[in-house]
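Supplementary notes (optional reading)

For those who missed the lab, this is the record we used. Protein: Cysteine-rich CPCC domain-containing protein. Length: 174 residues.
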Amino acid sequence: MTRDEAIRHLVQRDLAGLSSKERSSLLLDWWSIDADDPQYNGLPDLLKLLISRFDEPDDPTKPVYDPLLKIALAYKYTGVINAYLQNQTALLGWDETIEGDVEAMVACPCCGYRSLQERGAYDICHVCFWEDDGTTDSERISGPNHMTLGEAQRNFRRIGAVTEAFRRYVLPDG
């Protein structure tokens, strides 16, 4: 099975398991998608219209939002190793080797894991939840993180996330 096929299966599983609150949160995170994003062109015209006309989705449970949710859910699998995808698809009943190249990632300045697509792009590390604003000085306050990189690194070593509030999002299976 290819990486893309495995991710499609996992996204379907994940989509079916989302609560209304989780759907709303993901939609708000991705509501700013626009024509500069290559995935935007694959969205249905009605959804593009809703995104362009409204500040937020009206009812996150509506199926019209599913294509955007699938993009958001698939993004979370970027850079994930094939063995993890294989373990997850095995839980769905597929016992196949996952083939394909893992996307190149760069190291998070906080936890050191290769979890970011590029440095300084304000992506959030899915390991420690540091928002990468390009900060490299361990004693300078990072605006989006409201703490220094050094504080975040110490928190990660101690609790596995940049703050106690983000611990609940740490994946139990890595």
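If you only remember one thing from this example: The longest strand covers residues 114-116.
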